[in-house]
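Suppose a colleague, Dr. K., hands you the sequence of a protein chain of 339 amino acids and asks what its three-dimensional shape might be. Before reaching for any lab equipment, you can write down a predicted structure in token form. Begin with the sequence itself:
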Amino acid sequence: MRPDTPAENVDHTAEAARLERSAGLYPQDAEALLLQAAAHLELSGDRPAATALYDRLLSDPAALDNPHLVRALKASNLWEYDHEAEARAIIDGIRATAPRDAAPWVIVAEALEAHDELEQAHETFTEGARLLLTDGEEPPYATHPLLFGRHRVRRMLGADHDAWDTLADGLSTGPVPLDELHDPGRVWSLGSDNPAELRAEISRLRAELGTYREALSRPFPVAVLHWPKQELTELTDAYPSLTAEYPSHEAHLATIESSLRELATSGTPNLGIVTGTVPSYEAFAASEGTTPADTTLLPQYATTLAARGRAVAWPPQRGEACWCGSGAPYGECHGAQTE
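The predicted structure, expressed as tokens, is then:
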């Protein structure tokens, strides 16, 4: 299913079943595929079945790339069908473990917000932002929803602007400022008899819709393909013509970092890295009916891996290891390179 397929044209139950079958075919991608299946089950109204999928994933948390995300989604889902106590316990656990990924923080904070727990939602958004943001550095794309959600909740609480609110407004690319979008008095505009107020509200709604559409159109990062050293050696030994594309592993790593920096400078959001393997690449080439030596296949392979949830966000969060696999902190490895 295309990410921009209108909701009314989607059979969510059938789509969930298709994704479950795909998870059986691609066990290495089961986490991402089953999370998508659970989302479809939630949209279909079958929240107990969605919980069953979350429980299935959490039966072996050590095998998950992001167990905190799965727990957050489970908590949000549980609260929607009257399992508040269990949802709260999971949320408290996530906050206590302080994950280094923005998505779990956003999900649990929005769950609290949706159930009018505004003070707790504000605390959760703030905790996540304090943990993941670094003073003086551009906030990673993945952390933007933290800042936007915090801004929204603070407006509802009537809190004065602070530095993070100003930062959030600057990061927003919509035609309507966040202050206006998050104005708690907007609800009254819908019942107004004043044509000017109604036109202004229509403009705000269009701006929000544009933001949601942009998010839907980018369900996975713009990903650059990374080959570990051993895999790259195996690849170029098997397909010598690819040596022109990959003259050395060091050059390959430097090209990845410079390409991502150029994309970031040009304003491209949601960047990531996918790691290839030779068997996976050869299977992809076979499925496309072409040879692995075809260089035009490389970006298609990267996009396919990203669509299956294999992308890792770039740049790494503060203090995380470098994406290249050296084990050194990113800031002391490829993140230390000067532009």
